Amino acid sequence: xxxxxxxxxPDQDESTPRKKSKGTSVVVWILMAMLVLxxxxxxxxxxxxxxxxxxxxxxxxxxxxxxxxxxQQQINALSxxxxxxxxxxxxxxxxxxxxxxxxxxxxxALDNETDRIGISAGDERIAIEITSSSAFSGPTGKxxxxxxxxxxxxxxxxxxxxxxxxxxxxxRALLQGAVxxxxxxxxxxxxxxxxxxxxxxxxxxxRLTAADxxxxxxxxxxxxxxxxxxxxxxxxxxxxxxxxxxxxLMPEAISDKMALDEDALKTLYDQRIAExxxxxxxxxxxxxxxxxxxxxAAKALLGAGTSFETLVxxxxxxxxxxxxxxxxxxxxxxxxxxxxxxxxxxxVGPFASDLGPALFRMNGVLAAQNTSFEDARTDLAAExxxxxxxxxxSDQIESIDDRxxxxxxxxxxxxxxxxxxxxxxxxxxxxxxxAAYPTFRTAAEAAATGDFPxxxxxxxxxxxxxxxxxxxxxxxxxxxxxxxxxxxxxxAKTTNAALTDLxxxxxxxxxxxxxxxxxxxxxxxxxxxxxxxxxxxxxSLVSDLFKMDINQVRVEEDxxxxxxxxxxxxxxxxxxxxxxxxxxxAISAQVEQAIAQDAFTLFTNALTQEAGxxxxxxxxxxxxxxxx
Length: 628
Hints:
Layout: H1 21-38, E1 53-57, E2 60-63, H2 64-82, H3 88-93, H4 96-117, H5 123-131, H6 145-154, H7 159-180, H8 187-198, E3 200-208, H9 222-231, E4 237-238, E5 241-249, H10 251-254, H11 262-271, H12 273-276, E6 277-278, E7 281-288, H13 292-303, H14 308-314, H15 319-322, E8 323-327, H16 336-341, E9 346-351, E10 358-366, E11 369-370, H17 373-405, H18 410-416, E12 420-426, H19 438-446, E13 456-457, E14 463-472, E15 475-476, H20 479-511, E16 523-528, H21 539-545, E17 553-558, E18 561-571, H22 578-611, E19 613-615, H23 617-625
Antiparallel strand pairs: 1-2, 1-19, 3-16, 3-18, 4-15, 5-12, 5-14, 6-11, 7-8, 7-10, 9-10, 13-14, 17-18
Helix pairs in contact: 1-7, 2-4, 2-23, 4-7, 4-22, 8-22, 9-20, 11-17
């Protein structure tokens, strides 16, 4: 390994205990992974003309290769996130290149500062990190110098270059730790956030529907419908569409032509016998407890009249979380015999489970299933035919591609092959037929006039090729074609207006002393927090109720949702208790992390401004040119 004498700052000494060695080690592993695995991802070695950097911060240069590799890595990561390969132009439109340059500028500013104040990791520390890395392990699982040298060579790095970069990364980590360490969340801020999060409110809710109106909405006249159609023409306008002609061949189109192999069908039946021959089963839910005492206490509550649903809610889970689905007796372990002894729904236990003591609720009995080969043959034959059709279609892809390359049109394919020809006015709202296939949608959206048709496969083994004929601008749909839709929209809007008037009338009466419950069946919903949701209600309802005073009533509207909500209770956050302490601790940790990050950002910005930045636009453009 390359040698370099260690530099130490006033408080940096190899004999000094490293209080943050664990955190620093994590940083080092991440940095090593980035260096070893990421540096080989871009094939730029130089840009000619003696250009080696895209700029500098203070005395620290930002190398062109570092910028190229970092930009490539970010484009790759974003491409994986989007599920498609992004071009440099697309990345630039998202500001990705600017983000990468800013990250490198920040790094250079920190490196410049570590040089200035004399912070550096020593050779002993570098040796420890390298020899403990699994990336450089040999057959014995220990550090192997040949593996070390070979890995660096594959990534176009010398030992000196790699060790120097690691030294710089560790130095930056030391500087960052010094800046971000020691922050404490202000108690007043923690308590304020805790009170805000934990405050609960109880409401009464009266939902209004058309049934609450005292009189029916009269039928609209033709003149009213026509006027409504004209006034809301955007609602009855077809969106921009892409007229697509396509030739397609799907497995179901030829599956009935496929020859069946009876022996293969019987073999398939035998291989999947567990699907066709099943023992008696039970629909089961399992509610797990931390220990036997807690499970027995829950069983006692159940015997005293507490519902199983209440026990589930008390554990902080939902019925979906504890649903085991249909289970055979052997699948249920110690609880199996008791559960299968039940002839009707009930709860048994507690019994041991792989997650701890648990109560089991049996919700239904599924009789044993014994499907003979003759009964299963129809389904198995359909599967075999579909599989054979997919293989037959796959065998035709090359031939069809050759036809297209030779100048065949989609119409020719429909005449000369099993493919069928069709046309669709495709838009973002299209979801029927071929538009239901993601690959078709992607191809239809990307098609341009004059594009060369190519064979594309669907997820279920079908194929298609398409052509963009024209783009149809947004067009109003004639009234006679959408009359029913106009009528329905008019009725919905008129009904909502009447319900809004009714809601405002009720609100006035309540403010004059009437009770909300006197106007219909109300829902009493206690203990709502700011993160709660009310089924069927807009999110604005919860945010609005935290702006209300006791007994205040509001009309809540969102589309077809029209309701009156009255605030009944305000429950402040519990000042003490285990839950309160745990939540305050979590809030405090987040606050400290946010403060530390803000401080580090300000520190880095200050270093950058003090050291000065200069960027070489020509070098940056040269890097970008490599992505074209």
